[in-house]
Amino acid sequence: MDSDAKLQILIEALSAAGASALAIDERGGVVISTMNDAALERDVAAFVSERLTRVGDGARLVMGREGVRLSLTVRPTAEEYGTLWVVVAREVRAATAHAGIEWLNVDEVEARYESSAYGVVEDAAVVAAPVRESYARGVPLMLEGELGAGQTQIAKRLYLDGPYSDQPYVSVMLDELTDRGWRHLLKSSESPLFQTGLTLCVGGWHAVGPERLRELVSAMVDTALATRCHVVLTANDMPGGGESDQAAFVTERLSCAVSVAPAIAEQGGASEKITCYLEYLADMFKTGAPKLSAAAAKMLDAYRWPRNYLQLREVSERLYILVGSGTVERAVAKEVLAQEDVIKTATFGAPTLESDLYILRPLADTERDIARLVLQHLHGNRTRAAEVLGISRTTLWRLLKGDDR
Fold first, then answer.
1. pLDDT tens digits for range 366-395
2. In 92-137, alpha helices (H)
3. Pick from 376, 296, 311, 387: which is nearest to 344 by CA?
4. Strands 59-65 and 199-203
């Protein structure tokens, strides 16, 4: 049997399995291919060749193309005249884009981390040893913290520093999923929940209703997700940073290791972080870096930073726009922080009493209405609502027990 006949048998076998293959050299040139589509062959070869320095034996890449996702398995093979990389490509037909679900390769994760405010300020900060150990031994890890405290960026850092960066990183933001996205996540065989070897970062738990929460957690438990993938969960990403009931349930049900991302106010040194980000902006736009006066630095250090690194980026950018390569004086810092407080109030709102909250009636009825308003403002987070009201969750439950019927 000649080589052409052997190649044809291979092509037919791969096609029957829903796959194709090609071999490329270190320059990305195609040496041999079973693909019938020349344009696809060129695209896959170019995509893989850009990542050859980061590809290990058996690495898996994901490639989006024309509304579908290609799953690429890459293996180097030593040949007499140099090293070739064999790429097996499989089209994942059911995996069209879903809002809230994103598949990323290591280079994409690294680029996003390095351009984030957390990545710029903290650089390649070493994650605490207990957190790394929990991640490495396959225990689901719950990263808590205030809004914008860097939970998702810490998850990316764990992935980048860990031994599994030659496999995809999948981000699932539950609060962004449509009904179609939920069906894909819970039912499709191409869902990240039913894959092996991924790093899976799941956030947005506060937006999940009771029925979907039970179904999702049951799927994660029943399929032993944490033994097949590295699972990192992020929570407390609500305004105010309070732990949602959903996150507490998930942490207990999945027996998660828990770590808290420290808020900027807890760390201190906000002015140093802003100086670092201002230098980043100056380098990006090829200008001199602004300086902080002592009075401005003191004011920035004393600020609460309720949205942490999200807010730090916004404040730094406004300071840079206002002073250029000059000096940030106290008055400028005060103006920018005042604007930030207005933006925060406009974005998250402040609890207001509606005009129909009539107070000339029994105290118990008034207390119940106030509790409802606070709970509505906090998006149903009963733990946080009880804290704001200064009562226990049991007392809050008693006030609202009629609402649960």
1. 777 788 877 777 777 888 777 777 787 778
2. 106-115, 117-122, 129-136
3. 311
4. unpaired
Residue 197: alpha-carbon gap to chain centroid: 18
Question: Of 177, 179, 173, 166, whose CA–CA distance to 205 is shortest?
Answer: 173
**Nearest one of 202, 196, 172 to 184, comparing CA atoms:** 172
DSSP state of 98: B
CB within 8 A of 374, min separation 6: which ones?
A: 351, 385, 388, 389
Residue 259's DSSP bridge partners are 143
pTM: 0.77
The Cα 142–Cα 15 span in angstroms is 42
Dihedral sign for Cα atoms in the order 203, 209, 215, 221: positive
| Paired sense of beta strands 230-234 and 30-33, if any | unpaired
Q: Is 70 exposed, middle or buried (0-12, 13-18, 19+ CB in 10 A)?
A: buried
Looking at the DSSP bridge assignments, the partners of residue 83 are 78
Which tokens hold the place of 159?
Answer: 């992935």
Phi, psi of 101 (to 5 degrees): -120, 120
Sites in the chain below the pLDDT cut of 50: 238-240, 346-360, 405
C-beta atoms surrounding 391 within 10 Å: 16
